[in-house]
Write a structure and sequence with these properties.
heterodimer; A: mainly alpha; Fumarate Reductase Iron-sulfur Protein, Chain B, domain 2; four-stranded parallel beta sheet; three-stranded parallel beta sheet; 22 helices; 5% strand; B: mainly alpha; Globin-like; 2 domains; 9 helices; 73% helix
Chain lengths: 537, 198
């Protein structure tokens, strides 16, 4: 046994000084609980990604392919040529620091390499060293550095500590979208086969089976049937949804996570109840069975491949337009990319609500409407009978998903819905919501379990605001419109704000919805007694 | 001079030194931000730590003054705020909770400095403060362990949920076995529990 030589007075004299080195000279330590496992080779083979090999992030040798340097530099050159925005973002940053303290990972971790400006600098330094004259001549003096295996590791470590939430870009006076820098970095790392298991697996599943979880048609159907039993118990109403039905007016596409994981399942029950009550002519699809798109976290091409099934299925079934469920990055992809990739969707019609006659002009190009827009319109036109008191046991606040808020500008519709189905709603502080919303801390494929410490760091700023409204107003429910939020905020609030639950907005709608022919409701969607009905349970 | 009077008089200076010491455990780029950004929502780490330290010192002063035991619930709440953050940052356990010991040195240095010009608290009182801080350190370690256990619990829960899902997809789980405690987070399990309870 090692001899213990420290004296008591030494033990209390902890050395608080940290090494004062510049960021380029501060080596990156790949720490446990901060990264996700590497993907399996078979998943990369499924989608024919390059340089497939077995490796582990914690190992010294990542077994990079022999021509790794050339691969990265060529890849960078291709991306610079393809995307003018990337070239611009590499060149125009003046390092003013406006973004520096806006990142949830920096705020929660205190690691300077999580400042968006510095995270991007990890790549800019290589860009300068290889693509600019000043960088080639002046080297470090011009902020340039050589590309080494250590730089690749550093990129991998920090570009997978960014959730592409784009909060930093809201504050950038030049409009630099640091999320796009992360996208480029991830695309380059993918060229070396350095993919995460939590991303590679869902991508392969989605490519083969149509959804991230790899659910086959009969499993999707049985999952939904599971919900129908619960709905029958709660309302007494039998619902018979259809699957892959040709000739339906509307195709409904939602993230597959809501079919299996609580509390997302309650949101899916909400959809089923709402559509039944409206008598909507719609169908689920077991092929376009995923609204989310983890391909978006690998490469532009992969995202496009996975996205293509939505229009393909709409065409095959002959629907008029598409309704989409509550999801975050799904909507960034639909709103900002789908029309460019797959459009024009001229085989579809401009979406019109069959219940209210409202024309969704905002969806003229994509022909796809967010369910929060659809439901807010129903409420605005008095088409739903709602009993708000059924949500009286809940004191609700609303978390804006980064992608629906900053990616598509949907800010008011979910709030309008919540205010019409709940009596107790309180906003979090202004700088933590809407365009300035804080990320859940686990988006862009970082919602694995092995990186839980990272997730807690990233989740701190959001949870801190939840804690504030919990203490001030007694908030006990964090509503949102994103499947990843539903899955990951549950863990985050469990650590930071115990006693707070997480739900989708349509779970609240389902609680309040008074359905034709329903029995007296005693249970909420979670099969818990409704307020005032405890005795009857 | 009694120790509580000394601490009250020098409270601002003590909290400021104590805060600076904990900030020095972060990289310098970060410590400036943690120190200077006063908005509690933009800077939850810095503001929580500062408020926690100030609160802890207030509680210590109050305890010394009344001679009563410290308000444990309040102390735990303040410690929890700081330790919960440091438990998920890049710190060893000793570094995460070591700031408590730091207060001993800060106070004794303040006393040393004041000795030349004014009457100061007795050695006995300083030892009493040391014992009190030792107790806080142990409480902080309990909180730290609770936080780490929570992290592992969250990881285990998520991994278990995933496995369960996969097993069910493969039809390897019989519905009647789903009331096992490890599956309680799942759909319809709550219902099953209620039926069992009935």
């Amino acid at each position: 046994m090692a001899k213990f030589t420290a004296k008591p007075k030494d033990l209390i004299n902890i050395d608080y000084t940290t090494p004062k080195t510049e960021w380029m000279d501060t080596p990156t330590e790949i720490r446990e609980h901060m990264f996700c496992h590497a993907t399996k080779a078979k998943d990369l083979e499924t989608v024919e990604f390059p340089n497939i090999h077995e490796w582990r992030p914690q190992d010294e040798d990542w077994k990079l392919p022999a021509n790794w340097e050339q691969t990265i530099l060529q890849g960078m050159q291709d991306l610079l040529k393809k995307y003018r925005s990337f070239q611009l973002f590499m060149d125009i940053c003046v390092r003013c620091g406006a973004c520096a303290d806006k990142c949830h990972f920096f705020i929660g971790s205190g690691d300077p390499k999580n400042m968006p400006v510095l995270r991007a600098e990890l790549m800019r330094s290589v860009y300068r060293g290889n693509f600019t004259l000043a960088g080639k001549i002046l080297k470090k003096l011009a902020g340039a550095r050589k590309l080494t295996p250590a730089v690749i590791k550093e990129w991998w470590y920090y570009f997978y500590q960014c959730t592409e939430c784009r909060r930093c870009s809201v504050f950038c006076p030049y409009g630099i979208d640091t999320a796009e820098v992360t996208m480029m970095a991830r695309e380059l790392l993918n060229l070396l086969g350095l993919q995460l298991g939590w991303i590679g697996g869902p991508v392969a599943n989605c490519y083969m089976k149509g959804n991230h979880l790899g659910l086959e048609p009969h499993t999707i159907k049985s999952s939904v049937e599971f919900f129908l039993d619960d709905i029958k118990e709660i309302t007494g109403i039998t619902i018979e949804p259809t699957f892959n039905r040709k000739g339906a007016e509307i195709l409904f596409v939602t993230p597959s996570g809501d079919l299996f994981a609580n509390p997302g399942t309650y949101t899916a029950m909400g959809y089923l109840m709402l559509f039944h009550e409206l008598g909507l002519d719609y169908t689920w699809s077991t092929y376009a069975s995923e609204g989310g798109n983890f391909g978006f976290f690998t490469s532009n091409e992969m995202a496009k491949r996975l996205n293509s099934k939505i229009y393909a299925e709409a065409k095959r079934l002959g629907v008029k337009w598409i309704l989409g469920g509550e999801c975050g990055h799904m909507w960034r992809v639909i709103h900002q990319y789908m029309d460019t990739w797959q459009g024009p969707a001229d085989f579809l019609q401009e979406p019109v609500s069959p219940i209210t006659g409202t024309k969704f002009e905002n969806a003229k190009a994509t022909k796809m409407v967010h369910i929060a827009e659809f439901t807010a319109d129903l409420i605005k036109n008095n088409k739903l009978k709602l009993d708000k008191s059924r949500n009286d046991h809940l004191v609700v606040t609303y978390h804006d998903s980064c992608n629906t808020a900053r990616g598509m500008g949907m800010l008011e519709e979910p709030r309008y819905i919540i205010n019409n189905v709940c009596n107790h709603f309180h906003e979090m502080p202004e700088d933590t919501i809407k365009e300035k919303t804080f990320c859940c801390g686990s988006g862009t494929g970082l919602n694995a379990s092995e990186n839980m410490e990272l997730r807690m760091r990233g989740g701190l700023p959001r949870a801190n605001a939840v804690k504030f409204v919990k203490e001030k107003h007694g908030v006990n429910m964090l509503a949102n419109v994103c499947a990843i939020d539903r899955a990951t905020l549950s863990a985050s609030v469990d650590y930071w704000v115990p006693g707070t639950a997480v739900c989708g907005t349509h779970e609240l709608v389902a609680n309040a919805l008074v359905m034709k022919g329903e029995k007296e409701r005693t249970l909420d969607i979670r099969l818990e007694p409704l307020p005032g009905k405890e005795a009857s349970e | 001079m009694k120790l509580y009077d000394f601490l009250s008089e020098n409270k601002t200076a003590i909290v400021s030194t104590w805060f600076n010491e904990i900030l020095a455990t972060y990289p310098s780029d970060t410590s400036n931000f943690l120190k200077n950004k006063k908005d509690r929502f933009a800077n939850p780490v810095g503001q929580t730590i500062f408020a926690g330290m100030e609160g802890l010192l207030t509680q210590i002063i109050a305890g010394l003054k009344t001679g009563e035991v410290l308000n444990k619930a309040e102390i735990d709440l303040l410690l929890d705020g700081i330790v919960r953050i440091r438990a998920i940052q890049d710190f060893k356990p000793s570094e995460a909770v070591g700031f408590i010991s730091g207060l001993k040195n800060i106070v004794s240095n303040q006393v040393k400095d004041a000795k030349k010009s004014a009457s100061v608290p007795s050695e006995g009182e300083l030892m009493e403060l040391g014992r009190l801080l030792d107790d806080l350190l142990l409480r902080a370690f309990d909180i730290y362990m609770g936080c780490r256990e929570k992290i592992y619990e969250l990881k285990a829960n998520e991994a278990r949920n995933l496995t369960f899902r996969l097993l069910r997809q493969a039809n390897l789980i019989n519905e009647s076995r789903m009331s096992a405690p490890c599956f309680l987070n799942f759909k319809n399990i709550d219902k099953e529990r209620k039926e069992v309870a009935k």
